[in-house]
Amino acid sequence: MKTSMKERVPGIALLLAAMVFSIVPLVSMLSAALQPQGTTPTGISWPSHPHWHNFVDAWQVADITPLLVSSLILVAGVVPFAALFATMAGYALGALKIPGGVVFFVLLLLGLTLPREATIVPIYYQIRDMGLLNTRLGLILVLIGSFMPFAVYWMRAHFLSMPKELSEASSLDGAGPWQSFVRIQVPLAVPAIASMCLLLFLWTWNTFLQAIVLIDDPSKRTMAGALQNFVGLHSTDVVLLNAGSLLIMAPTIVVFLVFQRHFVKALISGAVKG
Amino acid sequence: MTTVGPVPAAQPVGRVAGTRPQGASTPAPRRRRRQRGWVVGWLFALPALLFYAVFVLRPLVSAVQYSFYDWNGIDLARFVGMANYTKVLTDPQLLSSIWHAFFLIIFFTVLPVVGGLLMAALIRELRSKGFGTLARTVLFLPQIIPGAAAAIAWVWMYSTDGTVNQVLSAIGLDGVTRAWLGDFTWALPAVGLIGTWINLGFCTILLLSGIGKIDGTIYEAARLDGAGFLQTFRAVTVPGLKQEIGVCVTMSVISALASFDIVFMSTQGGPGYSTMVPGVLVYQLGFTQSQVGLASALALLLTLLILLVVLPLQRAFRSED
């Protein structure tokens, strides 16, 4: 039963309106970023001579290269370890069903609704006392800890969905829990781990509050955290500000467009599980 | 349902009867192995537990401790009992930040969920694969970029020379143009709309995946009965998405009550206190005004509020499943 064209028009119009709403702020930034430097642009207006060179200048002014390196170091420090620890704990809670695991699990559930603001002030003093202020290591440790509730929850759900016979069979074969974990369980969990890693990457990259609190030097922060400093310095130069901000956003947008299907799937199942 | 009574009563008896002799006859090595199994199992959980305990639970306990003290972060702390809490609950500025957070729920939750339902139903209705994918990608984009960057995009949109005023002038509404984020009345709804922008795509995609799980024959039956789009929407789509709507509401309410990035980067709580939210206030009190105890009390009350709002919501949306 096909809907008639006349019935479809209002629907399409509404959808298009929502799409315009979603894209206009980004187009508006791009339009401003391409104006001649030093001018004050107005709204969206495509320049007759788009100044693509503004992006090169903004790359230098915003110091994007060290920022990219810094963000990559943070991702490399957070994602593999968070994924490993969460997979191990998920295995312990979901497959091995360790005695007393319920207590750990309830504590994690509490962490799922805990806002970042709840712990940020004590975290600052704790990291200061550990001598890790202004170091990436401090931020990495804090982020791994704060991702644990979601990540363990996610991996536990995966291991609960696996057939019990799997771990029983491997333990009958005389394989210890570690061997069974590495040789059998982890390879089967790769899709779940991969989706989780995509989310952990996105969250690490977009980390803002912890980055601006724990690290003073913007070049050691995440890309998102560095925006704060960049805006502070260039809030009056609309052209450069928009060009720089677009550059800072670009990596996540590119990663999203490349891995789009996985991203959407991961975010959705993550939300439903959480 | 009728077996609910007997089963739990029978189970312990059976278990005790079954395991006791077995336990007695189990060879010692096997029992030792099982005990070792516990230890090994906990070793698997240990790293995650350790990180969680040190970097989440311990700061949380410290926050509780700080909240009873008057401390500037440097000098000796002075015990003040509940004074910080009474200050949060009586100081008009602190209290107003909490009201703002609740006001933001209209923009962070109500608009995106209602809009997302409509968009998801429309995308399903059109059944055009190419257009559907394009719509999903475009709507989802704001969810991907950092909240801080979204704020910068909108600061430019809302500025005197920005796109919002440009559009208003173009349709003959010159009279209402203004610097939106500098306006005492309009700044808070303007900040809220940034939240709508971010959450709309998330809700749309989540609800769309839920629609995919609704039996297609129900839609066919509705159509054969002569139900129009709106009737189908009300009778089939919305009831079928109860769980997904629950997830959207829960997550977006948390994002409204605990908002920080957007407000911090767009208005810093200003003009005046007109867009101040608890998240930004915790940051300012804790890190620029050196009122660590007060910041902790506010942060903990915020956490409590979130739990009080979210737990009943989760129960409400899950009870009948």
Automatic annotation (TrEMBL), chain A:
Residue ranges crossing the lipid bilayer per the database entry: 12-34, 67-90, 137-155, 186-205, 239-259
Residues spanning the signal sequence: none
Entries under PROSITE patterns matching the protein: ABC_TM1
Record membrane topology: Multi-pass membrane protein
GO annotation terms (biological process): transmembrane transport
Recorded family membership: Belongs to the binding-protein-dependent transport system permease family.
PANTHER family named in the record: ABC TRANSPORTER PERMEASE PROTEIN MG189-RELATED, ABC TRANSPORTER PERMEASE PROTEIN MG189-RELATED-RELATED
Protein's UniProt name: ABC transporter permease protein ORF2
Automatic annotation (TrEMBL), chain B:
Residue spans crossing the bilayer: 39-61, 98-122, 134-157, 186-208, 245-266, 292-313
PROSITE patterns recorded: ABC_TM1
The keyword Heme appears for this protein: no
Pfam families for this protein: BPD_transp_1
Cellular component aspect of the GO annotation: plasma membrane
GO biological process terms held by the UniProt record: transmembrane transport
Alphabetical keyword list: Cell membrane, Membrane, Transmembrane, Transmembrane helix, Transport
Span list, region Disordered: 1-30
Domain ABC transmembrane type-1 intervals: 98-313
Domain of life: Bacteria
Membrane topology of this protein: Multi-pass membrane protein
Subcellular location: Cell membrane
Family: Belongs to the binding-protein-dependent transport system permease family.
Annotated protein name in UniProt: Putative starch degradation products transport system permease protein AmyD
Species: Luteimicrobium xylanilyticum
